[in-house]
Amino acid sequence: MNTHDDAPPAQGTVLVTGAAGFIGSHVTDRLLAGGASVVGVDNFNEYYNPQRKRQNLEAAQQRDRFTLIEADLRDVDAIGRAFDEHRPTAVAHLGAYGGVRYSVGRAKLYNDVNVTGSVNVLEVAREHEVDQFVFASTSSVYGHSQRVPFVETDPCNQPLAPYPASKKMVEVLGYTYHLLHSMNFTALRFFSVYGPRGRPDMMPFLVTDHIVKGEPVTLFDAGKMKRDWTYINDIVDGVVAALGRRLGYQIINLGHGQPVLMTQFVAIIEKLVGRKAQLENPPAPPSEPKITFADIDKARQLLDYNPRINVDDGLEQFYKWYQRHVAN
């Protein structure tokens, strides 16, 4: 296997799971803009407002190279039909149940969707001889890692909640498919992604929305925690680059590489909104690490990854989107 043979996704059809979600819709738009055909799979579940997900795909649905299939990852027959009918040449598997804290007490749901659903997609890809598979993993797999910044060789065997545990399981399964079936499998560990279309359960949206509405903002440990906030456009750069490179089996961090203190993060949003937050400072739950911090040397080397958007500029873009699509 030629592990560095570039194969631009624009040459074929990419099947994108979770295509209506925050990251999935941006990846879909970028692939379409680059000339690829996209088969988007999403079940529009009720984790957050399905109408918001449909709005995420409004631009994509204006293009004739985009096909939307409403299907659940747990429905292997529906996934099989998508491959049968559209013959994708690569898979961007971004669909999953998200949320670290929401996953606590819901291990069966997260196993069913994130693990069994991923096996369904991997199996159908194998049966159709699709050997280019990019998987959305998470920085949450690092848990309370003692090594900072987080490096991909960390064992990551002590996840803090079912969500990261499910993602680690799929990373491990990916190696099996690479070894036994010669599949190129790249797991991308996303670090605190934010930007336009951000999910309403995620910190950037929650903080902004609560400040705008004059509602209390929960800030664990008095805002002393740090997160490696990574703007959506930079994440999409990494996903598209991974789709275009046959790398064998790889796990790669996609972060900004510059952790931000949560008090600073909230202060930026306060300035954008023009109002101070009403802060509540409970202790952090055990599912929350004190810091996330990506070592992105491997991404630079293998994907020519170079994050460009700092948190001030990124949050400004997010707030402009919020004003246009949420506040009005």
Would you give an account of this structure?
This protein has 328 residues and is an alpha/beta fold. It has a single domain (5-195, 230-257, 293-308), classed as NAD(P)-binding Rossmann-like Domain (Rossmann fold, 3-Layer(aba) Sandwich). Helix content is 41%, strand content 18%. The chain has a 7-stranded parallel sheet, sandwiched between helices. α5 (107-127) packs parallel to α6 and α7 (203-213) crosses α11. The longest helix has 21 residues, at 107-127. Mean pLDDT is 95; it is low at 1-5.
Q: Outline the biggest β-sheet.
A: 7 strands, parallel
Helix content: 40-55%
Number of helices: 11
CATH topology: Rossmann fold
Strand order of the largest sheet: 4-3-2-5-6-7-13
Distance between the termini: 53 Å
Using the coordinates above, name the CATH class.
Alpha Beta
Task: Give the SSE string.
Answer: EEHEHEHEHHEHEEHEEEHEEEHEHH
| Domain unit count | 1
CATH architecture: 3-Layer(aba) Sandwich
Q: What is the global morphology?
A: globular
Note poorly predicted spans.
1-5
Main structural class: alpha/beta
Give the DSSP E fraction (strand runs of 2 or more residues).
Answer: 15-25%
Mean pLDDT: 95
Q: What's the gyration radius in Å?
A: 19 Å
CATH superfamily: NAD(P)-binding Rossmann-like Domain
**Count of extended strands:** 15
Oligomer: single chain
